[in-house]
Structures are given as structure tokens and as C-alpha cells.
Specification:
Blueprint: E1 5-13, E2 16-23, E3 31-41, H1 43-51, E4 53-54, E5 57-58, E6 68-76, E7 88-91, E8 94-95, H2 101-104, E9 115-116, E10 129-133, E11 137-139, H3 146-164, E12 172-176, H4 180-191, E13 196-200, H5 204-212, E14 217-219, H6 226-233, E15 239-244, H7 249-258, E16 259-267, H8 280-285, E17 289-292, H9 300-308, E18 318-323, H10 327-336, E19 343-347
Parallel strand pairs: 12-13, 12-15, 13-14, 15-16, 16-17, 18-19
Antiparallel strand pairs: 1-2, 3-6, 3-10, 3-19, 4-5, 6-7, 7-11, 8-9
Helix pairs in contact: 1-10, 3-4
Bound molecules: zinc ion (2 copies).
Length: 353
């Protein structure tokens, strides 16, 4: 590997991003240096790029975004025995404290001291290299592509949603919102043995992709009578599990009507509205269980194992690929072409021949 400087995409203020030379980081005792093979553009990255803030997280200093990545170990710290240079790994981007009540109970995604890549002021990995503690690096089987490795991050949200919602093979699942997360919730559902997967989205391109990726049927919430159609398609049996991944207030409220009594709703999409009215009577009367999902915990090893011998495909959600040097175009594609782009993938070490 080269030493000294590397390319990194630095965002200094909203809508302003450019490649700059920064120092290649040096791994500490329990860390490894990763040569980033590919890294996705996430909705949160685009949000920081556009607005400079998500809730209480504000971009005050120039920042490197990006947190969905896989790459090759090129150097390890003195105390590292579990990985060596040449290993291919997926990077789990949130490093928890390990000592709090949440960490000790296994729910480390709720750790108040978690350090998460590309969440201000923490830098992400739209760069040629990154250093990470080895316990957050997950070795990829030879048969698994780097792209799938990078997509384990958004897949993990779907995997966690399945775990939270106690998914079972005989669930009849409805996923509202078919962006990258909704589509990957569908793939996670398959890994949990679910075969009846319905989806809704207002964007035709997303519905078509969902069908190509194995959804049973898809609907346009603006045009279709979804409740009636689901009733027909399930022979009156109804939906047992809803995963709401749009964040749309209407879709969130409707989920109570679309799930059957005794069913479960997992809320993944963060609402764009401050408050969302809910039909609490139906929720209570129907004994509907509801769950929130914040990122994920303990999903990487399980997802790698489940994916390895399955035919479930994640890569179909990649619609665009860019070299890191084209970062501006990459982010703009994700920001402005929502009708034709799902996942934009960046290749930091790609050099045109
Ligand atoms: Zn993400
Ligand atoms: Zn903790």
C-alpha cells in the first residue's frame, strides 16, 4: 500500500463536497487499516449533504460521510490476532462503549456513547482507507462480493426489523416504502423464511424492482385499494406483520388498518412529521404489537451466515456506480434522481485504465 496521503471526499458545507488529500490513518493496537473497496450512499449521507444536519447531529466542521462499506485489511495493530492483511471484511460502522446497560444486555445499538461513522463530528469512509477496531470487522466468505459486504449495513436494518417483529416463515408480510431499506427488508424476510411479501410505494420504478427481487405483489398507495387487494391475495387471511419503512405519516397511520388483529407492526422509517395521529382504539382492541427499530445489533455474523448458502440477492438494488473522484455526481444522483436510483455505490480505489 502507499503511505502518507489518500483521497477523501470532504463536505465542508451543505451541497459542497470535494476530493482532498488527507493523512492515511494509522491503526492502533486493536485496530486494522482497511482499503475501502466499495461504499454506498445512504439516505442519511444525502440528508447531511443537503441540509447539514439530522436532528441533533449538526455538521459544524468539514466531514467525511459514508458508512456502508467493505474492503481489504492491509495492516493490523500489534494486539490483533483474528485478522491479517489480505482478509476481506465488511465494516460494521457503529462502535459501542461495551460497558453500559445496553451494551451488556446485547442491545448495543442503544448505547448512548456509540461512535457511528459519518455522524457528526465522527468521520465516515468516503475515502481510500479507514481504521476500525477489529471487533467491528466481519470476515467475508470467498464467495461473497464486496458489494454484498457493503450492503450488509442497510440489510442489517431489515434483519433487525425481522428480529424485533419475531418474523416467522408463515408470516404474511407487508412492507410500506420500497427504497433501499424497504427492498432489503424484503430480502431479510426471505432469509427468515418468509415467502409471502407484499410492498407499497408511489414510485413505479421501485415497485418494478421489488417484483424483480421476488416480492409477491406490489401496490401504489396513491391509486390502489390496498386493504381490499391484500384481502383478496391472502384469501381473507390478512397481513400478520407490517414493516413500515417509508416514514410517511399516512403510511404509518394506515399500518394499523392493514395489519390483522393480533398482528405486529415494526416502524423503521423515521417520520418527516413531528407527530403522527394513530388509531389507538384499533391498536389496543386488536392487541397489535408495535416495535421501533434503531439501526441494529448482532446482525452481521448472522446475516453473513444466512446469506452465504442462500440465493437471496442484494446487489440488484445497486443502480449506479462511481469512482470516489466523481463524488459530487454520485451524491447528486442519489439526491435528485429518486425516481431512477436506489443504491449508489462508490469505489474509492477505482483508477480508470
Ligand atoms: Zn445507512
Ligand atoms: Zn454502551
Amino acid at each position: 500500500m502507499k503511505s502518507g496521503k489518500m483521497n477523501a471526499a470532504i463536505m465542508d458545507k451543505p451541497l459542497s463536497i470535494a476530493i482532498k488529500q488527507v493523512d492515511i490513518p494509522v491503526p492502533g493496537e486493536h485496530e486494522a487499516l482497511i482499503k475501502v473497496h466499495c461504499i454506498g450512499v445512504c439516505g442519511s449521507d444525502v440528508h447531511y449533504y443537503e441540509h447539514g444536519q439530522i436532528g441533533r447531529y449538526i455538521v459544524k466542521e468539514p466531514i467525511i460521510l459514508g458508512h456502508e462499506l467493505a474492503g481489504e485489511v492491509v495492516k493490523v495493530g500489534k494486539a490483533v490476532t483474528t485478522l491479517s492483511p489480505g482478509d476481506r471484511v465488511a465494516v460494521e460502522p457503529g462502535v459501542a462503549c461495551g460497558n453500559c446497560e445496553y451494551c451488556k444486555s446485547g442491545r448495543y445499538n442503544l448505547c448512548p456513547d456509540v461512535v457511528f461513522l459519518a455522524t457528526p463530528p465522527v468521520n465516515g469512509a468516503w475515502a481510500e482507507y479507514i481504521v476500525m477496531p477489529v471487533s467491528y470487522l466481519h470476515k467475508l466468505p470467498d464467495s461473497m462480493s464486496y458489494e454484498t459486504g457493503a450492503l450488509l449495513e442497510p440489510l442489517s436494518v431489515g434483519f433487525h426489523a425481522m428480529q424485533r417483529g419475531s418474523a416467522k416463515p408463515f408470516d404474511r408480510l407487508l412492507i410500506t416504502g420500497l427504497g433501499p431499506i424497504g427492498l432489503l427488508v424484503g430480502q431479510a424476510a426471505k432469509l427468515f423464511g418468509i415467502t409471502e411479501i407484499y410492498g407499497t410505494d408511489t414510485v413505479a420504478f421501485r415497485r418494478e424492482l421489488a417484483l424483480e427481487m421476488g416480492f409477491t405483489a406490489v401496490f401504489d398507495p396513491a391509486a390502489d385499494q390496498i386493504g381490499e387487494k391484500l384481502n383478496e391475495l391472502t384469501d381473507g387471511a390478512g397481513i400478520t406483520l407490517v414493516v413500515e419503512s417509508s416514514g410517511n405519516a399516512r403510511a404509518m397511520a394506515d399500518s394499523v388498518k392493514l395489519v390483522k388483529r393480533g398482528g405486529r407492526i415494526v416502524f423503521v422509517g423515521l417520520p418527516t412529521a413531528d407527530t403522527v395521529p394513530m388509531d389507538m382504539a384499533s391498536l389496543i382492541d386488536g392487541e397489535i404489537d408495535t416495535y421501533g427499530v434503531f439501526r441494529y445489533a448482532n446482525t452481521y455474523p448472522a446475516a453473513i451466515q444466512a446469506l452465504q448458502r442462500s440465493a437471496v440477492d442484494l446487489e440488484s438494488i445497486i443502480t449506479h456506480r462511481y469512482a470516489l473522484t466523481d463524488i459530487k455526481e454520485a451524491v447528486e444522483t442519489a439526491r435528485t434522481r429518486k425516481d431512477t436510483s436506489i443504491k449508489v455505490m462508490i469505489y474509492p480505489n477505482f483508477v480508470a485504465e
